[in-house]
Design a protein that fits this description.
With 115 residues, this protein is of the alpha+beta class. The chain contains two helices and four strands. The chain has a four-stranded antiparallel β-sheet with strand order 1-2-3-4, with helices on one face. Strand 3 (76-82) and strand 4 form a beta hairpin. Helix 1 (2-17) packs antiparallel against helix 2. The radius of gyration is 14 Å and the shape is globular. It starts with a helix and ends in a 22-residue tail after the last strand.
C-alpha cells in the first residue's frame, strides 16, 4: 500500500509540476523527470542520481538509464521508460532483479550487472 501511494504521489507531482505547454519529450525534461522518479522510488537524494538519455526505440518509447552514486549496497542502476509523448511508463532497478537469466541480450545487459 505504501509503495502504491508513493507511486501515485510521484506521478501526481510530475503531472502538476509540468505545464501544459512544456514539451515532455525534450531531453532535459525526460532526464529531470527520471531523476525525480528514481530519487522518490529509491529513497535517495536527487543529488546522488545520474541519468543518461538513450536513443528512442522503434515503438517511440524513450529509455533513460541511470545510476545512484555512493549506494551502500553496491552498484545500483535503473531505467525510466517514457512513452512517445514523454509520459512515464515504468521503472526498473537492479535491486529488484534476482538471479541471472540463461540468455541476456546486449540491450538488457545493464539490468544484470552481477551476471
Amino acid at each position: 500500500m505504501r509503495y502504491l501511494l508513493s507511486c501515485v504521489v510521484i506521478l501526481v507531482g510530475l503531472s502538476t509540476a509540468l505545464s501544459a505547454n512544456e514539451d515532455l519529450t525534450d531531453p532535459i525534461t525526460l532526464m529531470n523527470n527520471c531523476e525525480r522518479i528514481a530519487s522518490g522510488r529509491l529513497g535517495m537524494p536527487i543529488e546522488d542520481v545520474r541519468v543518461e538519455l538513450q536513443t528512442a526505440r522503434v515503438d517511440g518509447s524513450i529509455p533513460v538509464n541511470g545510476e545512484v552514486l555512493g549506494y551502500e549496497g553496491g552498484e545500483l542502476t535503473f531505467q525510466c521508460n517514457f512513452d512517445a509523448k514523454g509520459m512515464p511508463e515504468n521503472f526498473w532497478n537492479s535491486k529488484d532483479i534476482v538471479g541471472c537469466p540463461a540468455d541476456i541480450s546486449e540491450a538488457d545487459r545493464w539490468l544484470f550487472p552481477r551476471c
